Give the backbone structure.
Amino acid sequence: MRVAPPGRIAAARQVMRRLSAILFAFFLGLSGPLPGQAQTMHETALFTAAADGDASAIRTLLARGAPVDLRDAKGRTPLLVATHADRVEAARALIEAGADVNARDAIHDSPYLYAGARGHLEILELSLAHGADLASTNRFGGTALIPAAERGHVETVRRLIEAGVDVDHVNRLGWTALLEAIILSDGGPRQQQIVDLLIAGGADVNLPDGEGVSPLAHARRMGFDAIAARLVAAGAR
Protein backbone atom coordinates (compact mmCIF):
# COMPACT_ATOMS: atom_id res chain seq x y z
CA MET A 1 0.00 0.00 0.00
CA ARG A 2 1.38 3.38 -0.99
CA VAL A 3 1.59 6.01 1.74
CA ALA A 4 1.13 9.68 0.81
CA PRO A 5 4.11 11.94 1.57
CA PRO A 6 3.81 13.81 4.93
CA GLY A 7 3.61 17.17 3.14
CA ARG A 8 0.63 16.06 1.09
CA ILE A 9 -1.14 14.71 4.19
CA ALA A 10 -0.63 18.03 6.02
CA ALA A 11 -1.97 19.97 3.04
CA ALA A 12 -5.04 17.72 2.84
CA ARG A 13 -5.73 18.22 6.54
CA GLN A 14 -5.49 21.98 6.12
CA VAL A 15 -7.99 21.88 3.25
CA MET A 16 -10.36 19.77 5.36
CA ARG A 17 -10.13 22.23 8.25
CA ARG A 18 -10.94 25.13 5.93
CA LEU A 19 -13.91 23.27 4.44
CA SER A 20 -15.18 22.42 7.91
CA ALA A 21 -14.97 26.08 8.96
CA ILE A 22 -16.79 27.20 5.81
CA LEU A 23 -19.56 24.64 6.29
CA PHE A 24 -19.92 25.53 9.97
CA ALA A 25 -20.22 29.23 9.15
CA PHE A 26 -22.78 28.42 6.42
CA PHE A 27 -25.03 26.36 8.68
CA LEU A 28 -24.60 28.85 11.52
CA GLY A 29 -25.85 31.58 9.22
CA LEU A 30 -28.91 29.50 8.36
CA SER A 31 -29.83 28.23 11.78
CA GLY A 32 -28.50 30.85 14.20
CA PRO A 33 -26.32 30.10 17.22
CA LEU A 34 -25.84 26.49 18.24
CA PRO A 35 -25.47 25.62 21.94
CA GLY A 36 -22.00 25.85 23.47
CA GLN A 37 -19.62 25.81 20.54
CA ALA A 38 -21.57 28.28 18.41
CA GLN A 39 -21.37 30.92 21.14
CA THR A 40 -17.64 30.28 21.43
CA MET A 41 -17.32 30.72 17.67
CA HIS A 42 -19.24 34.00 17.88
CA GLU A 43 -16.95 35.25 20.63
CA THR A 44 -13.77 34.27 18.78
CA ALA A 45 -15.11 35.84 15.60
CA LEU A 46 -15.85 39.10 17.43
CA PHE A 47 -12.21 39.53 18.43
CA THR A 48 -11.12 38.71 14.88
CA ALA A 49 -13.54 41.24 13.43
CA ALA A 50 -12.34 43.87 15.91
CA ALA A 51 -8.69 43.30 15.00
CA ASP A 52 -9.51 43.34 11.27
CA GLY A 53 -11.69 46.46 11.51
CA ASP A 54 -14.75 44.67 10.13
CA ALA A 55 -17.57 46.83 11.50
CA SER A 56 -20.25 44.97 9.54
CA ALA A 57 -19.22 41.62 11.02
CA ILE A 58 -19.14 43.17 14.48
CA ARG A 59 -22.74 44.36 14.18
CA THR A 60 -23.85 40.94 12.92
CA LEU A 61 -22.08 39.08 15.71
CA LEU A 62 -23.47 41.40 18.38
CA ALA A 63 -26.96 40.94 16.96
CA ARG A 64 -26.47 37.17 17.28
CA GLY A 65 -25.66 37.50 20.96
CA ALA A 66 -21.91 37.97 21.28
CA PRO A 67 -21.22 40.00 24.48
CA VAL A 68 -19.92 43.46 23.61
CA ASP A 69 -17.53 43.54 26.59
CA LEU A 70 -16.28 40.00 26.24
CA ARG A 71 -12.75 39.37 27.61
CA ASP A 72 -9.87 37.41 26.09
CA ALA A 73 -7.08 35.63 27.97
CA LYS A 74 -5.28 38.96 28.47
CA GLY A 75 -8.37 40.67 29.84
CA ARG A 76 -8.86 42.71 26.67
CA THR A 77 -12.29 43.57 25.33
CA PRO A 78 -13.00 43.62 21.57
CA LEU A 79 -12.94 47.43 21.80
CA LEU A 80 -9.44 47.40 23.25
CA VAL A 81 -8.32 45.02 20.50
CA ALA A 82 -9.76 47.39 17.89
CA THR A 83 -8.05 50.30 19.62
CA HIS A 84 -4.68 48.53 19.57
CA ALA A 85 -4.97 48.29 15.79
CA ASP A 86 -6.48 51.80 15.46
CA ARG A 87 -9.55 50.33 13.73
CA VAL A 88 -11.79 53.37 13.94
CA GLU A 89 -14.98 52.00 12.36
CA ALA A 90 -14.77 48.80 14.38
CA ALA A 91 -14.33 50.85 17.53
CA ARG A 92 -17.28 53.03 16.54
CA ALA A 93 -19.52 49.99 16.04
CA LEU A 94 -18.56 48.58 19.42
CA ILE A 95 -18.91 51.88 21.29
CA GLU A 96 -22.29 52.58 19.70
CA ALA A 97 -23.35 49.12 20.89
CA GLY A 98 -22.44 50.07 24.45
CA ALA A 99 -18.82 48.90 24.82
CA ASP A 100 -17.12 50.23 27.96
CA VAL A 101 -14.39 52.69 26.99
CA ASN A 102 -12.92 52.37 30.50
CA ALA A 103 -12.73 48.56 30.68
CA ARG A 104 -9.17 47.64 31.65
CA ASP A 105 -7.12 44.62 30.68
CA ALA A 106 -4.63 42.67 32.80
CA ILE A 107 -2.03 45.46 32.53
CA HIS A 108 -4.50 48.24 33.32
CA ASP A 109 -4.90 49.58 29.79
CA SER A 110 -8.37 50.70 28.72
CA PRO A 111 -9.51 51.77 25.24
CA TYR A 112 -9.50 55.39 26.43
CA LEU A 113 -6.07 55.22 28.06
CA TYR A 114 -4.52 53.33 25.15
CA ALA A 115 -5.97 55.65 22.52
CA GLY A 116 -4.56 58.63 24.40
CA ALA A 117 -1.14 57.09 24.94
CA ARG A 118 -0.78 56.03 21.29
CA GLY A 119 -2.24 59.12 19.70
CA HIS A 120 -5.24 57.31 18.16
CA LEU A 121 -7.14 60.57 17.99
CA GLU A 122 -10.38 59.41 16.35
CA ILE A 123 -10.89 56.60 18.84
CA LEU A 124 -9.93 58.97 21.64
CA GLU A 125 -12.66 61.35 20.49
CA LEU A 126 -15.18 58.50 20.51
CA SER A 127 -14.15 57.51 24.02
CA LEU A 128 -14.37 61.09 25.29
CA ALA A 129 -17.89 61.32 23.87
CA HIS A 130 -18.92 58.08 25.60
CA GLY A 131 -17.90 58.44 29.21
CA ALA A 132 -14.11 58.28 29.31
CA ASP A 133 -12.85 58.49 32.89
CA LEU A 134 -10.38 61.38 32.69
CA ALA A 135 -8.97 60.58 36.12
CA SER A 136 -8.25 56.92 35.30
CA THR A 137 -4.62 55.87 35.33
CA ASN A 138 -2.42 53.25 33.68
CA ARG A 139 -0.11 50.74 35.35
CA PHE A 140 2.43 53.50 35.99
CA GLY A 141 -0.17 55.62 37.76
CA GLY A 142 -0.30 58.09 34.89
CA THR A 143 -3.25 59.67 33.12
CA ALA A 144 -3.63 59.42 29.34
CA LEU A 145 -2.01 62.85 29.06
CA ILE A 146 1.36 61.78 30.45
CA PRO A 147 2.34 59.16 27.82
CA ALA A 148 0.79 61.31 25.10
CA ALA A 149 3.11 64.15 26.12
CA GLU A 150 6.11 61.84 26.30
CA ARG A 151 5.50 60.39 22.81
CA GLY A 152 4.97 63.70 21.08
CA HIS A 153 1.29 63.33 20.17
CA VAL A 154 0.61 67.05 19.85
CA GLU A 155 -3.06 66.96 18.88
CA THR A 156 -3.82 64.28 21.43
CA VAL A 157 -2.25 66.39 24.17
CA ARG A 158 -4.27 69.38 23.01
CA ARG A 159 -7.50 67.39 23.08
CA LEU A 160 -6.87 65.86 26.50
CA ILE A 161 -6.12 69.27 28.00
CA GLU A 162 -9.31 70.64 26.45
CA ALA A 163 -11.23 67.69 27.88
CA GLY A 164 -10.03 68.56 31.37
CA VAL A 165 -7.35 66.03 32.25
CA ASP A 166 -5.29 67.19 35.24
CA VAL A 167 -2.12 68.69 33.72
CA ASP A 168 -0.22 68.38 37.00
CA HIS A 169 -1.05 64.78 37.82
CA VAL A 170 2.03 62.96 39.16
CA ASN A 171 2.58 59.30 38.26
CA ARG A 172 4.37 56.63 40.30
CA LEU A 173 7.71 57.69 38.86
CA GLY A 174 7.20 61.14 40.34
CA TRP A 175 6.73 62.73 36.91
CA THR A 176 4.09 65.03 35.43
CA ALA A 177 3.24 65.33 31.74
CA LEU A 178 5.59 68.33 31.56
CA LEU A 179 8.45 66.39 33.10
CA GLU A 180 7.93 63.43 30.77
CA ALA A 181 7.74 65.76 27.78
CA ILE A 182 11.26 66.83 28.72
CA ILE A 183 12.97 63.84 30.32
CA LEU A 184 11.81 61.17 27.86
CA SER A 185 12.00 63.18 24.64
CA ASP A 186 14.45 64.55 22.09
CA GLY A 187 13.49 68.16 22.78
CA GLY A 188 12.42 68.64 19.17
CA PRO A 189 9.63 70.71 17.61
CA ARG A 190 6.79 68.41 18.66
CA GLN A 191 7.97 68.35 22.26
CA GLN A 192 8.33 72.14 22.20
CA GLN A 193 4.72 72.44 21.02
CA ILE A 194 3.61 70.12 23.80
CA VAL A 195 5.46 72.16 26.40
CA ASP A 196 3.67 75.24 25.03
CA LEU A 197 0.31 73.46 25.31
CA LEU A 198 0.97 72.31 28.86
CA ILE A 199 2.06 75.78 29.95
CA ALA A 200 -1.01 77.33 28.31
CA GLY A 201 -3.09 74.68 30.04
CA GLY A 202 -1.88 75.81 33.45
CA ALA A 203 0.89 73.30 34.18
CA ASP A 204 3.05 74.20 37.17
CA VAL A 205 6.45 74.85 35.58
CA ASN A 206 8.17 74.58 38.96
CA LEU A 207 6.68 71.26 40.07
CA PRO A 208 9.74 69.03 40.56
CA ASP A 209 10.15 65.30 40.17
CA GLY A 210 10.30 62.88 43.08
CA GLU A 211 13.94 63.79 43.70
CA GLY A 212 13.30 67.53 43.76
CA VAL A 213 14.67 68.28 40.28
CA SER A 214 12.68 70.95 38.43
CA PRO A 215 11.55 70.85 34.78
CA LEU A 216 13.95 73.73 34.04
CA ALA A 217 16.89 71.88 35.57
CA HIS A 218 16.09 68.82 33.47
CA ALA A 219 15.78 70.88 30.29
CA ARG A 220 19.11 72.58 30.89
CA ARG A 221 20.84 69.33 31.79
CA MET A 222 19.66 67.78 28.52
CA GLY A 223 20.61 70.80 26.44
CA PHE A 224 17.04 71.61 25.40
CA ASP A 225 17.56 75.36 25.11
CA ALA A 226 14.28 76.06 23.31
CA ILE A 227 12.28 74.30 26.02
CA ALA A 228 14.30 75.95 28.79
CA ALA A 229 13.53 79.36 27.28
CA ARG A 230 9.81 78.57 27.24
CA LEU A 231 9.92 77.50 30.87
CA VAL A 232 11.79 80.65 31.97
CA ALA A 233 9.30 82.82 30.10
CA ALA A 234 6.53 81.06 32.04
CA GLY A 235 8.20 81.78 35.41
CA ALA A 236 10.31 78.65 35.89
CA ARG A 237 13.14 78.80 38.36
Remarks:
- The chain has two domains: 8-133, 141-237.
